[in-house]
Amino acid sequence: MPNKIDFGNGSIDFNIETILIKKNNPEVKKLAQFYIQLFQNPNIQIQEVDKLEFTQKNSIILGINERRDAPDRYKIQVTPYGIMVEASQVKGLFHALQSLTQLVKLNPENKAGSIRIPTVIIEDEPRFSYRGMHLDVARHFFSVDVIKQYIDLLALYKFNNFHWHLTDDQGWRIEIKKYPELTNVGATRSNTLIGHYTDRPVKYDNKEVSGYYTQEQIKEVVEYAKDRFINIIPEIEMPGHASAALAAYPYLGCTWGPYKVANTWGVFEDVLCTKDTTLNFMKDVLNEVVDLFPGKYIHIGGDECPKARWKTCINCQRNKRRFNLADEDQLQSYFIKEIEKHLYRKGKKLIGWDEILEGGLAPNATVMSWRGETGGVEAASQNHDVIMTPGSHCYFDHYQSKNPREALAIGGYTPISKVYAYEPIPANLDPKFSKFILGAQANLWTEYIEDEKKLFYMAFPRAIALSEVLWSRKEDKNYAGFLERLQFHLPWLKTQKINLTNAYAELDYTLSKSGDDMVLHFVKAPIKGKVLVEFKHNANNFTQEYPKGDSLILSNSLDLKAWYQLQDNSLCKPIHIIYNKHKAAGASIQFIEKPSPKYFSNENSIINGIAAPTNKYSGPEWLGMEGKNFEAIIDLSKSDTIDQIKFQLYNFPAAWIYPAKEIIVEASTDNLNYEVVGSWKLSPFTQERYIEPIVDLKKNKSYRYLKIKVINHGKIAEGSPGAGHTAWLFLGEITVD
Ligand code: ACM
Ligand code: ZN
């Protein structure tokens, strides 16, 4: 959404014949040549003139104006007498030409040969100076051609930085001439984990993964990006995420190995040693990197560096004494500061992930805030530049759909609506520091992105939402309007062979109670379409209908699937709801202990008749207690006999979710005098991820109130994930029969 857009009375049929530019402006001429090449139309003439004016119908005039105050601002005028584009810098002209490209390419009426453009005046400039997209090529390698396609799309959507994550535990992907083993050894791993890294048993494929970019290829990509006004920020990870470097040169580590290029995901204890040999090695590496990338920034990682090896390393401990450092955090800070000094001498600025704050920030460092906004707020408050990339909104390796059949992702849920809602200036940052927030970036970590098809599927259309967050004015934000505009972008992206999701229009639901029945309300995205429902009667028997309103009364147990059908008749992935009417479905519930707001959708999810999915712990039907017992009173509104109560528990130590130790059910007719009516205890041998305890009650007695206590696992023992913390308790539906 441009800042200003005024449509004229009609449109012009445009057949570009000439590009008019002023004499003696080689930069503008280069841009004009580039644009002609992009349009693959060699008949377009460049005319160099003394004065730029509307004189020829099928012409684009490219003019540099004197507005030095706004380096990114541009203006486009589409008139029957030609198209005039002006900006104070060539990059502004480039952005204008991207807008023009969108006007041409996204118009479905523009078949080959005829180009119709509305008469319009557009004035525009970006809200943030840093608009980035990242790509991890270590976990999976992507060819130069794919990188170029990625850069083309970034340019079309007016991003101006590409953060190229070139090294990690699973591969070193940039040729370093002084240290050839980095790619001879470090660019290849023998095999790769299959499935999610928390899956058990652990499985591996038997395919070698190999690949790196030669320095010639890097130069080619840098040049390609430069032509599209995109700066490339290379990332060379240190001191953590360095297994590939260690495998190539084991003397870089504290223990000398042996090390191997990682074939699984996560954080590894073996990291670079802080000794001079290693620092000097990394400085040599950076010398070659600095020569390849003309931009001012070099990213050195700095995230997720365990300190265990340093604690028992003679060299690291000697450094602590030598530099009078209090702890290993300060040792990390020492390492980063040494690297920063070196980069500074080479005229470069260091960027690091927010862990570089720990132990003290290097004097001129720019921080990328990924663990939420805290690091960004802290760094900006210390007058340091910040780029926001919080996991909550900017990690495009997260799921964009809640559908259980969505392609595997690392976790999380970052739908496009959430990306669009992102505000890069943290709400709790003192406004006097907001100028330090340069912008934001989305990160694409590729553990679960094995090829370009999935890469573009994960990146788009979410990147378009982020582009608008970073470019457009805050007051012009309008999600429904964005989705409407998106309908022009998606068909065009499909012609570019980009595999797209329509998850942005997937249905969601809420429930309420009406008399004795529950009512299901469909929650729709703000985009035109119809709800289609299929009821399952038995294995071979279904009926389909378009319900009249957006809700359905659930008077009996039922099994249904519901889709949103868009105007082009395409269907989004369905929601599947199995409603099981039981005595507490829709009853009122009073929580004695409050669930964690992070895993709690609404009071009634635990007794709404809809079971939580048994294969994952996310979604509105699961409730999480962080370190606490679950304790609540259910009021059935009248006394009734109860035979049994069924629970749903989750067991997932990797995420610190442990099953309850015990369940105790008390019952009462008056909410004053309670008696224990049933209980359950966890078997110590339980391994299953999903557990369904059943508590049988004394028969033939009636109760109105049930007091349910589900006892948290408590403190996690040494040797188990999350040791020393208290466990999460996850509870699904409580079914009362
Ligand atoms: C990160 O995601 N470890 C920066
Ligand atoms: Zn060491």
Short description:
The chain is of the alpha/beta class.
What do these coordinates show?
With 737 residues, this protein is an alpha/beta fold. Strand 24 and strand 25 form a beta hairpin. The strands form 11 sheets. The chain has an 8-stranded parallel beta barrel, surrounded by 5 helices. It folds into 4 domains: 4-124, Chitobiase, domain 2; 130-242 and 288-495, Glycosidases (TIM Barrel, Alpha-Beta Barrel), CATH 3.20.20.80; 506-579, Immunoglobulin-like; 588-736, Sandwich (Jelly Rolls), CATH 2.60.120.1190. The model has no long low-confidence stretch (mean pLDDT 94). 41% of the residues are buried. It is built from 16 helices and 40 strands. Bound molecules: acetamide and zinc ion. The site of zinc ion (ZN) has 8 residues, from helix 9.
Assigned CATH architecture of the largest domain: Alpha-Beta Barrel
What is the number of beta strands?
Answer: 40
What is the number of helices? Answer: 16
CATH topology of the largest domain: TIM Barrel
**Average pLDDT score:** 94
User: What is the count of structural domains?
Assistant: 4
State the strand order across the main sheet: 8-9-16-17-18-19-20-21
Instruction: Give the bound compounds.
Output: acetamide, zinc ion
